[in-house]
Design goal:
Mean pLDDT: 85
CATH topology of the largest domain: GROEL, domain 1
Number of helices: 19
CATH superfamily of the largest domain: GroEL-like equatorial domain
Strand content: 15-25%
Distance between the termini: 42 Å
Strand order of the largest sheet: 9-14-13-10-11-12
CATH class of the largest domain: Mainly Alpha
Helix content: 40-55%
Number of domains: 3
Length: 550
């Protein structure tokens, strides 16, 4: 029996399902490299749009997502997350940027900008050399990237964070990271982030210090200025207490995942009352049962009851009688955070908790922050949770500050893994570009042109910093001349761009540094993404499904 597939038309259209799109280099001639050029052009559109957000003087973008939410930020990862990028090649750069953000927090725009400049220089090489030499271009980029990772970057290390428990040393790396996200707020936020990280810092199995980003929480309250932001060692709930009593010290905590209310059957029933006594005693059983439960909880020493659901009026009545505090937390995620802050175990059953199920807090009180009432639960000294209370005048600024804090915490997490530093302000990129250009002549093959293109692409960082600050390209030429004239015997050249004085100055004196691990990760991801795009010669796209977008 002959299958229907054998009767289909020949070619890609007959082999694939109906609606499948296919693009290849042969569509416009044997050596036209049409797919590669189209992919590069799509990536360049994305990179050119976001390169203006690089650095402290980077411009913000206003993005309206599919839900109508307005996002105003210069954070590259946040912009790409809200953009619905459809082109598959551009999505590769988007995924590389997202990975950099999750791993390091900083350097997201560097991934996109450097990958875009590599692809732009590749486009020029294709026009000059022809696509038949694509393998030499890819090999040259691979050699240059390997040399940067193994030789140049480690040799340009200008210092090390020796003690991650020292707040002064943490501030050295936090200020540049926060300044690139929200310039002007670094002097306020950097000490808060450093103190929060030191509060939640723990030891790993190998004895190394580590910081969990989930242990540092942010609470945004509109009003006032960034300078009014503060660090709270514990948990902050953005609502008041349900009971009359609003403060307590040295209190035990019971957390109930469900509501604090009387249980009821699912089936509906009818109650027949014949006398007035029946009516008077109808609710007595329910009241006595609830009083027994609340009294049992109070006798264990619990002062604060946390409910993950509703709290009945009857339960609140007896809580006030026994002078207990009650807090409602609607979010399961927030309930988990509160348990982490207090050491409590969430209970499904309603009743007196056992000793190991109770949490503990030094104090619980209600305070007014701006126009909002919040409940502050100050945790014990051994509890690893900190909350940064952010203040700003608009919701967009608050969201930007929250992203800056998250990136700062990830930077501290990276410091715990690798504390080596390199100079910022485009100094390390220009130093690598000058050295790669010198080494390119040692390669007799066509790879030397790709290595020079790689070196030229590294110059995009100081050039973009200068352009975003409103300077001309003479600054980049002067910076290149300073690095080219530097004698290697005198040590590392630390000349970079100072965006405040509009001059080429010592980055070491200005304490403008980047983490070597963050820089290495960003450059590696950018090179890998660019090489992946260059190796694509065909695109096969299935027909989109009719379901909702995930």
């Amino acid at each position: 029996m002959t299958s229907m597939a054998y009767n289909s038309a020949a070619g890609m259209g007959g082999m694939m399902k109906e609606g499948t799109q296919h693009f290849s280099n042969q569509d416009e001639g044997l050596h036209s490299a049409s797919v590669v050029i189209r992919n590069i052009e799509a990536c360049l559109q994305l990179c050119q749009m976001l390169c203006t957000s690089l650095g402290p003087q980077g411009r913000s973008k206003l993005v309206v997502n599919h839900l109508g939410k307005i996002i105003v930020t210069s954070d590259c990862a946040a912009i790409l997350k809200e953009m619905e990028v459809e082109h598959p090649a551009a999505k590769l750069l988007q995924m590389a940027t997202e990975h950099q953000n999750q791993a390091c927090g900083d350097g997201t725009n560097l991934v996109l900008t450097f990958a875009g400049e590599l692809l732009w220089n590749t486009l020029e090489l294709i026009h000059k050399m022809g696509w038949q030499h694509a393998s030499e271009i890819v090999e040259g980029f691979h050699l240059a990237g390997k040399r940067v990772q193994n030789e140049l970057l480690p040799n340009l290390c200008c210092g090390t964070i020796t003690d991650v428990t020292d707040e002064t040393q943490l501030l050295r790396i936090l200020k540049p990271v926060l300044m690139s996200k929200n310039m002007g707020s670094q002097e306020t936020l950097a000490p808060l982030v450093a103190q929060a990280c030191l509060k939640v810092m723990t030891k790993s199995a190998t004895g190394r210090n580590k910081v969990s980003p989930d242990a540092v929480r942010t609470v945004k309250i509109m009003g006032s200025s960034v300078q009014k932001s503060e660090l709270i060692e514990g948990y902050v709930a953005q609502r008041g207490l349900e009971t009359v009593t609003t403060s307590a010290t040295d209190c035990k905590i019971a957390v109930f995942a469900a509501g604090v209310e009387a249980s009821s059957t699912e089936a509906k029933g009818t109650v027949l009352m014949k006398t007035a006594e029946d009516l008077k005693s109808y609710n007595k059983t329910e009241e006595s049962k609830m009083e027994e439960i609340i009294q049992g909880i109070a006798e264990t020493g619990v002062k604060l009851i946390v409910s993950g659901g509703t709290v009945s009026d009857m339960a609140l009545h007896f809580m006030d009688r026994y002078q207990l505090l009650c807090l409602k937390v609607g979010s399961k995620w927030e309930l988990r955070r509160l348990c982490q802050a207090t050491g409590a175990t969430p209970l499904v059953r309603l009743g007196a908790p056992m000793a190991e199920e109770m949490g503990h807090a030094e104090s619980v009180n209600v305070k007014e922050v701006g126009e909002k009432t919040v409940t502050v639960i100050k945790s014990s000294a051994d509890t690893k949770l900190a909350t940064i209370l952010l203040r700003a005048s608009t919701s967009s600024v608050l969201a930007d500050l929250e992203r800056a804090v998250e990136d700062g915490v990830r930077a501290v997490e990276m410091v715990c893994k690798d504390g080596r530093l390199v100079h910022g302000g485009g100094a390390v990129e220009m130093a690598m570009a000058v050295e790669l250009t010198r080494q390119a002549d040692k390669h007799p093959g066509l790879e030397q042109y790709a290595i020079r293109a790689f070196a030229k692409a590294l110059e995009i960082v100081p050039r973009t910093l200068a352009v975003n600050a409103g300077w001309d390209n003479k600054v980049v030429a002067n910076l290149q001349a300073a690095h080219a004239a530097h004698n290697a015997a005198d040590g590392i050249c630390d000349q970079g761009i100072d965006i405040e004085t509009e001059q080429i100055t010592s980055m070491n004196d200005n304490e403008v540094v980047d983490l070597l691990g963050t820089k290495s990760s960003a450059l590696k991801l950018a090179v890998d993404a660019a090489l992946t795009v260059l190796k694509i010669d065909q695109i096969i796209m299935s027909k989109p499904s009719g379901g909702p977008k995930m």
